[in-house]
Amino acid sequence: MNFDFAPSWEKNYYLPVFMKGFPIRTHHWESLPPAVAWDEKKEMLLRNTTCSFSMIRRRRYPILVFTTLLLTALLYNKLYHPFAPLPRDAHPQGRGEFDGTWNYTRDAKNLQMTESQCTQAFPDLYKEIDRAVEDRRLNHITLKEIEDMPQEDDGFLRPMIYDQQLYLINATYGINSRGEASLSALHRAILTSPEPLPNIEFTMMVDDLAESANPRWTYSRQKSMSSLWLMPDFAYWSWPEPKIGAYREIQMKAEAMDAKVPWDSKIDKLVWRGASLEVLVREQLVNATRGKSWADVKMLVWSDDAKGKSHDAITMDGHCQYKYMAHTEGISYSSRLQNLQNCRSVIVAHKLSWLQHHHHLMVSSGPNQNFVEVAKDFSDLDQAMEDLRSGAEGKHLKAEQIAENNVKTFREWYLTPAAEACYWRQLIRGYASVSFEPEFYKDNGMGEKTQWRGLPVESYLLMRTMEWRLQ
Fold it and tell me: What is the rounded distance in angstroms from the CA atom of residue 347 to the CA atom of residue 403?
C-alpha cells in the first residue's frame, strides 16, 4: 500500500489546530478496487486513532488542568451562586406596595405613600404637628409674623413651596451643612409626593437654640415653646462633618452589626463617648460612672492633636456592640439619640428637657418600654444598671426585650425613610391649614408684580448663595 503523506507536519497550516500532525492522503479512494480501498480505510482509521491517543498522552497535563478548572468553576457557581440577584428581602425594597399594614422589609423605603397610607402606616407619628396646628387653630399665621422675624440670624432660612416646587426667599450661613441637609430632605419629600401639596411660606432655624414667639420650624423645643413647629433633624439626611454619614447608611451598618453580634455576645457595659461642651449633665454622667466595672464612659476632646482621640472614639455602629448605651443632651438636644435608636441595645437616658419630633414615641415603662429613664443628674444610674444586668423582673422589662422594642419602634418603623417623608408632607399640610396663601411674584420696581420672590432650591444647594454675578 502506497501512502502519500504530507512532506511536513509544520506545513499543515490550513488544518485546525487539533488536527495538525495527522497524515494526509493525496489520492482518491475511488481509484482503487473496493476490497483494497476498504483495507486502506481500516488501516488509515487505525493509524489516526493511534496518533490521536499519542497526542493525548503527550498533552495530558494541560488537558487535566483545564478539566479541573472547568469542573471547579461549575461546582462553585452551583453552590454559591455568585451571579445570582440579591433576594428581595435582603434590604427593604420600597416598591410602593403598601397594603394598609406596615411591613418593614417591604415598606421602609417607600417614599410615595399617600396621605391616607401614611396615616395607616404611622398612626402615632404626628403628635407634634397636631399640637402646633391646634395652637394656631383660632389665630392663623400671617405674613407679618414672618416679616417681623430677624432675617439675619445665623442658620435662618425662609423657604416657600409653590406649585410643588421648593424655593428659597432668604438664607443666612448656618452651622456646617445643616440647612442644605434639611432643604434636601424636604425637597425629596415634595418630589416623591403622589398627591399635590399646598402652597406655604415659612421660616426655618437650623441652630441648636431657636426660641421664638413667632412660628418657626426647628429641630427641637422645650415644652414651653409652643410657637415652634418641629421638623425632622438635619442628620436624617446626612451628618458628614463628624464623619457619621447618611442616616440610611447608619441604619444599614447598625443592622449588620446586630446580625454579627447577637445579644448574648454584646459587651455587658454602658457605653458613652462625647465632647464636654461644658454641659453639666455630661460631667455628671462621667462622675456617676467613674470606677464602675459596668461602664465604658469617656469624654472626647475634639481637636486634631488630641492624644487618644482616635483610640477612644467609637463609630455609630460600633455602639451596637454594647448592651447598654447612655444618652445625654448637649447645648440643647443631641442628634446622637436617633442614631443610638438604630441599635438592638438598651438606651439609658436622663429626663429630657428638649423634645424632637419623635420623642413622644419613647416609652419608659410597661410592656412597650423601649428605653430606660434615670434622674437628670444620674443619681440613680447605679441602681438602674444593677436591675438591668441582673435580668430580674421588676421596675423594667428584661434588658433584651427593651432592646428589641427599641429596634422595632424606631429603626424598623418610625425612623425609616418612609416615615420621614410622610412626616414632612404632613407638616406641610398642617402648616397650610392655619397659614396664609403666599404670593409667587413681587414688585419689579415699576409697579408690576413680575419678579420672582424665590430662588429654586436646586440652584441654592449647588451655589450656597442667594445671588451671584455672571463673569
Answer: 8
Quote the CATH superfamily of domain 253-415.
Glycogen Phosphorylase B; (3.40.50.2000)
Partnered with residue 230 across adjacent β-strands are: 218
Residue 85 pLDDT greater than 80, yes or no = no
- Total count of residues recorded for the chain: 471
Whole-number Å distance between alpha carbons of 317 and 340:
9
The Cα–Cα gap between 121 and 94 comes to 13
Identify each DSSP E strand in 9-144 by its residue range.
none
Domain definitions of the chain by residue range: 1-84, 104-236+429-463, 253-415
SS3 347: strand
- Separation CA 456–CA 461 (nearest Å): 9
pLDDT digits (tens, 9 = 90+) for 15-29: 444 444 544 454 454
Selection from 348, 406, 407 nearest residue 381 by Cα: 348
- Tell me the three cell numbers of residue 375: 434622674
> Could you give the C-alpha distances from 55 to 13, 58, 61, 433, in angstroms and in order?
18, 5, 11, 89
Calpha distance 229→204 (Å, rounded): 9
Integer Cα distance of 182 and 156 in angstroms: 12
Task: Take residue 54 and report the three cell numbers written for it.
Answer: 499519542
Beta strands 295-300 and 267-275 are parallel
pLDDT given for residue 4 in this prediction: 47
Q: How confident is the model at residue 145 (pLDDT cuts 50, 70, 90)?
A: very high
Looking at residue 230, its pLDDT comes to 98
Q: What residue type is assigned to position 188 of the chain?
A: R
Secondary structure element (H or E) that encloses residue 65, with its range: helix 60-80
Sequence-separated (6 or more) residues with CB below 8 Å from residue 198: 161, 428, 429, 432
332 and 208 Cβ atoms separated by less than 8 Å: yes
Instruction: Give the up-direction half-sphere exposure of residue 25: CA atoms within 13 A in the CB hemisphere.
Output: 15
Terminus-to-terminus CA distance in the chain, angstroms? Answer: 95
Amino acid occupying residue 401:
Q
Q: What is the pTM assigned to this prediction?
A: 0.78
CB-neighbour burial class of residue 434 (10 A; exposed 0-12, middle 13-18, buried 19+): middle
**DSSP β-bridge partners for residue 324:** 270, 346
Characterize the bridge pairing of strands 449-452 and 441-443. antiparallel
E strand residue ranges, 301-445:
322-327, 346-350, 372-374, 441-443
Number of Cβ atoms within 10 Å of the Cβ of 209: 12
